[in-house]
């Protein structure tokens, strides 16, 4: 701190010895610069003359010292124009960056001061504008001019490592000068001014293992053969100092954690030369017998170890694999052990690295050897059968108690063991192990018996062994052969002599030892039949062959042919089957047409296509007849009353859509409502009137006050009319009368007049009735036009 204050006082002394003298100038003329400020002199190496310009004042760049710690405002420089005669008639103004807040100017003398301390790293320079004006009229005497005040740098920032602390790695056993990494420190001071930003690097902690380049900051190894197994992590302290490392410079430090990465420079080593293991003789094949391990000081893939059994004694009984997680050697059982056969095994195991580095071959062989001795332990074993499985044969229907075979089991620790079976069809001698039948066997029910025989240890019943015994039941010839299926045989009427019309085969429920063998023949061998015979093909099939031609269904439709079938067993069995042969009609190529008896009576020469054509014609005629009858019936149903003069509203089907209630020309509906137009003696025109049965209808008086009586009379009149039509008709009983104040309410009556209706009120009902109002409004306009 004292060093910094001394430097500031020295710079302030330089400023006070050199001040900015005013320029001598006259308006409208060129003038020399008569002022060289101390800051300009400091920058250019001394005072120098300025060029003549066409303006009243000119000045160089001003400088202000950063981090000024004085109590008074820091003097920056002086502004002066040759128009200023010293009579206080000129006023100086200042504007721009920091004018009034950071920098201030004396309006009479033109002296510029900095009001507070400045930091070059925050803002390196300030651009301002100055102007001289008349103090009374405030009129500019000179054009406004721009100048710069630059903040002069001092060494107030130490170098900094922006990315620290650092982490690096270098392979172990590296030679001297191996590159590790590069560090860089930054200094916020001005690198163009002095040595404030000139940084020099050095190591404060980490020697003699590493070194650093003082200019570039590159870190390298400085000691050869550094071994990771001895020391893996190094912490290096790097210093960066400005001012070129000179006394009084500021410094910054950072830490670098350097790790030595592993290389394969160590071989695996067994912790002892002999390993003793014990294994029970009952151990399963593939199970782990024991574990051994060779230690490697390296890590990662450089510490991976491969184990191998050296060929020799015991090498064929065991195998060894490597556990990838802990690099242990797992000894596995390769073959079953037997204490009674061999009680101990000895062999050697070799451990070697999987990944070798050729740079370190001179360190010696990267492998090690150890001896493994394995002792087999005796265990109480269950009995062992002489075979892994047994197979026996026995004929079906063998008498009960017949011995079919034997099994033997031996206790290796003692002697023979008792046995027992697990099937009710057989019995076993528990001492000798002989198996005998317990029931009569039937191959057709169960052709094979799978039983289990259990041997138990005498002194330890918990220890048992089980073996599978398969008993095959052999077949004896007890079923005769029969036809394989019910055949549907036919012979064509056009069949020729010697033609095979059917191929047959046979089946047998017995199971012959060497495949099935059947023979076929007619019941009376050697006797010639006149219709059919059996021909044996010798391959378990036979053919039905015709002995004549000219078969006719009219003469005989069905023939029965017996067939004798024999098997090839030791005791030959036979059976007789019967084939039913039908005589059928066939096409020219022998295809079946029909075998029915009705086909005999069909006309000769008519083919199937002709018969179908005849049937189609018959169907068409029937359809035409049905349509004709339907049309005739429809015509009979038409109404007889077609006259338009009939005033009654009959229900008539005329397939025409009327015009609605506005259609007054098709039918005068008003007649049904006006009692004045009712005519007397109106009889039905569709039937002949009967004078005695047609009473005279009373005329309704228009002055009648009792409308109910009028309607009742009309109702009785129609109910008593015996000449009513047989079809539905509409009878009108309504009567409104005349002289009503409200006038007639009938829509039928209203169509008689030509009264105009005003539909303008529909427009007042809203948008929903807009379309309806348009229709009736258009209709009213048409009537008015007409």
From TrEMBL:
Membrane spanning residue stretches:
600-631
Disordered: where is this region? 26-47
Any Pfam family matching the protein: CADH_Y-type_LIR
Q: How does it sit in the membrane?
A: Single-pass type I membrane protein
Q: Name one GO biological process term.
A: cell-cell adhesion mediated by cadherin
The entry's keywords: Calcium, Cell adhesion, Cell junction, Cell membrane, Glycoprotein, Membrane, Metal-binding, Repeat, Signal, Transmembrane, Transmembrane helix
Q: Which GO terms describe its cellular component?
A: adherens junction; catenin complex
Instruction: Indicate yes or no for the key word Cell division.
Output: no
Q: Which GO terms describe its molecular function?
A: beta-catenin binding; cadherin binding; calcium ion binding
Q: Tell me the leader sequence span.
A: 1-20
The cross-references to PROSITE patterns, in alphabetical order and at most eight, read: CADHERIN_1, CADHERIN_2
Q: Where is the Cadherin domain?
A: 81-161, 162-270, 271-385, 386-483, 483-601
Cell compartments where the protein resides: Cell junction, Adherens junction; Cell membrane
Purpose: Cadherins are calcium-dependent cell adhesion proteins.
Record's protein name: Cadherin-12
From what organism does this protein derive?
Cyprinus carpio (Common carp)
């Amino acid at each position: 701190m004292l060093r910094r204050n001394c430097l500031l006082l020295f710079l302030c002394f330089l400023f006070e010895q050199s001040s900015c003298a005013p320029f001598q100038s006259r308006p409208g003329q060129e003038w020399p610069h008569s002022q060289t400020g101390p800051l300009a002199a400091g920058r250019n190496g001394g005072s120098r003359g300025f060029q003549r310009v066409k303006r009243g004042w000119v000045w160089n760049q001003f400088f202000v010292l950063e981090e000024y710690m004085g109590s008074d405002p820091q003097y920056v420089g002086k502004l002066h124009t040759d128009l200023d005669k010293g009579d206080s008639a000129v006023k100086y103004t200042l504007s721009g960056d920091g004018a009034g807040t950071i920098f201030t100017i004396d309006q009479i003398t033109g002296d510029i001061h900095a009001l507070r301390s400045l930091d070059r790293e925050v803002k390196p320079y300030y651009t301002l504008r100055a102007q001289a004006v008349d103090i009374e009229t405030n009129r500019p005497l000179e054009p406004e001019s721009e100048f710069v005040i630059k903040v002069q740098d001092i060494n107030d920032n130490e170098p900094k490592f922006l990315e620290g602390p650092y982490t690096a790695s270098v392979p172990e056993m590296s030679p001297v000068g191996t590159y590790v990494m590069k560090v860089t420190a930054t200094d916020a001071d001005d690198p163009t001014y002095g040595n404030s930003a000139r940084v020099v690097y050095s190591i404060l902690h980490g020697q003699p293992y590493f070194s650093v380049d003082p200019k570039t900051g590159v870190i390298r190894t400085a000691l050869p053969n550094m071994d990771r197994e001895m020391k893996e992590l190094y912490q290096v302290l790097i210093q960066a100092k400005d001012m070129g490392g000179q006394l009084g410079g500021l410094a910054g430090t950072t830490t670098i954690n350097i790790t030595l990465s592993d290389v394969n420079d160590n071989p695996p080593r067994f912790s002892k030369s002999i390993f003793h293991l014990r294994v029970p003789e009952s151990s399963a094949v593939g199970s782990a017998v024991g574990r051994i391990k060779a230690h490697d000081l390296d890590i990662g893939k450089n510490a991976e170890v491969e184990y191998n059994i050296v060929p020799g004694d015991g090498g064929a009984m065991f195998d060894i694999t490597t556990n990838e997680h802990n690099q242990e050697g797992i000894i596995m059982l390769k073959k079953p052990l037997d204490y009674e056969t061999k009680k101990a095994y000895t062999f050697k195991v070799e451990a070697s690295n999987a990944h070798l580095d050729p740079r370190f071959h001179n360190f010696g062989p990267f492998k090690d050897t150890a001896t493994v001795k394995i002792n087999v332990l005796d265990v109480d074993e269950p009995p062992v059968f002489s075979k892994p499985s047994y197979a026996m044969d026995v004929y079906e229907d063998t008498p009960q108690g017949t011995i079919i075979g034997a099994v033997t089991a031996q206790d290796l620790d003692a002697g023979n063991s008792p046995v027992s079976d697990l099937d009710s069809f057989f019995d076993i001698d528990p001492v000798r192990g002989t198996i005998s039948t317990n029931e009569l066997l039937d191959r057709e029910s169960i052709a094979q018996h799978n039983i289990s025989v259990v041997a138990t240890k005498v002194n330890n019943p918990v220890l048992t062994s089980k073996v599978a015994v398969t008993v095959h039941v052999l077949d004896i010839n007890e079923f005769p052969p029969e036809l394989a299926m019910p055949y549907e045989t036919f012979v064509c009427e056009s069949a020729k002599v010697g033609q095979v019309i059917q191929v047959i085969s046979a089946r047998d429920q017995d199971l012959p030892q060497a495949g099935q063998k059947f023979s076929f023949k007619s019941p009376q061998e050697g006797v010639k039949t006149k219709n059919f015979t059996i021909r044996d093909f010798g391959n378990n099939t036979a053919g039905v062959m015709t002995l004549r031609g000219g078969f006719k269904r009219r003469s005989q439709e069905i023939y029965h042919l017996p067939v004798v079938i024999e098997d090839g067993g030791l005791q030959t069995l036979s059976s007789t089957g019967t084939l039913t042969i039908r005589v059928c009609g066939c096409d020219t190529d022998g295809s079946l047409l029909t075998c029915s008896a009705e086909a005999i009576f069909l006309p000769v020469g008519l083919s199937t296509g002709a018969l179908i054509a005849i049937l189609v014609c018959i169907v068409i005629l029937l359809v035409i007849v049905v349509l004709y009858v339907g049309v005739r019936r429809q015509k009979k149903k038409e109404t007889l009353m077609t006259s338009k003069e009939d005033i009654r509203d009959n229900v008539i089907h005329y397939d025409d859509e009327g015009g609605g209630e506005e259609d007054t020309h098709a039918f005068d509906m008003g007649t049904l409502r006006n009692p004045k137009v009712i005519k007397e003696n109106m009889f039905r025109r569709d039937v002949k009137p009967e004078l005695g049965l047609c009473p005279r209808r009373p005329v309704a008086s228009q002055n009648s006050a009792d409308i109910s009586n009028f309607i009742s009379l009309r109702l009785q009149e129609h109910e008593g009319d015996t000449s009513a039509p047989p079809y539905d008709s509409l009878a009108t009983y309504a009567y409104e009368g005349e002289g009503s104040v409200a006038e007639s309410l009938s829509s039928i009556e209203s169509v008689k007049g030509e009264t105009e209706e005003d539909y303008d009120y529909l427009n007042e009902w809203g948008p929903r009735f807009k379309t309806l109002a348009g229709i009736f409004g258009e209709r009213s306009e048409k009537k008015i036009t007409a």
